[in-house]
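=== Structure Prediction Worksheet ===
Name of assembly: unnamed complex
Input type: mixed (protein and possibly other molecules)
Chain count: two
Listed entries:
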Amino acid sequence: MTTIRRFETFDWPLVWPILHATFEAGDTYAFEPQSSEAEMRRAWIELPAATYVACADDGRILGTYYIKPNQPGLGSHVCNCGYVVAADAQGQGIASAMCEHSQREARALGFRAMQFNLVVSTNTRAIRLWQRLGYAIVGTLPGAFRHPRLGYVDALVMYKSLVD
Amino acid sequence: MTTIRRFETFDWPLVWPILHATFEAGDTYAFEPQSSEAEMRRAWIELPAATYVACADDGRILGTYYIKPNQPGLGSHVCNCGYVVAADAQGQGIASAMCEHSQREARALGFRAMQFNLVVSTNTRAIRLWQRLGYAIVGTLPGAFRHPRLGYVDALVMYKSLVD
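=== Predicted Assembly ===
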């Protein structure tokens, strides 16, 4: 059973190794692969409006996500989320559970839509998942992501309305 | 004759009224219309990689633009620019001159492409100008901009490669 709850300060020592491994791999997020722990904390915890963790029954952290306005002022009704799943918890539906959770949280926080700004086109598993969860590919950015092995690859903009 | 040069600290008293009027109108930029002078300065001068001003022969400031990486790390080869023209200098080709200038500067700074994240769909004059200057509409974000008179309107993602 996976529980998703708000991030607490004491979670950080378990969260940052998961972020570090993901950013360092450099194939899914634009975050600088050599980001320091302080930079990761700022990007994932301090800047967002809220951060969450997905926990196993034994307290292990399986994944984490943040939610924040994607733009200031007149664009702040659209949110942006980022999701990371621990390497040893892949394939268990954690990303899907976090994404569903984030849509409920986004609505509760008053957001009207959710936008992913830079979905790496080679990350086909994520793209299929977001599509299954109702996100549409609304744009393609040619060569917008510098992949560590593949060089410049396209990135997708994905979007889902959260209102009827 | 219009000269475009780097922003200097002494320009601010002439720049911020132009930004204030533009943001307050709320029909082209997401920036909070009631942004304080300090917030505007942070967004336009401090956060970007560089800011420029377009000046008339008599020293009046006709427009201003910034340039910055649109994403961190593995997306930082794509830049983002924002352009503002003074109300009394509209229709004189200032936006066009600044945009051409920004493409040269972007290349000189090593950027490989330029992206506009939130072009308000009702701002047809700007859209036509960007298209004429080689920017393609690569995406449409449904209802992503809260227009002060028209309500939620679509926003466009526009993109131009700066390399051959």
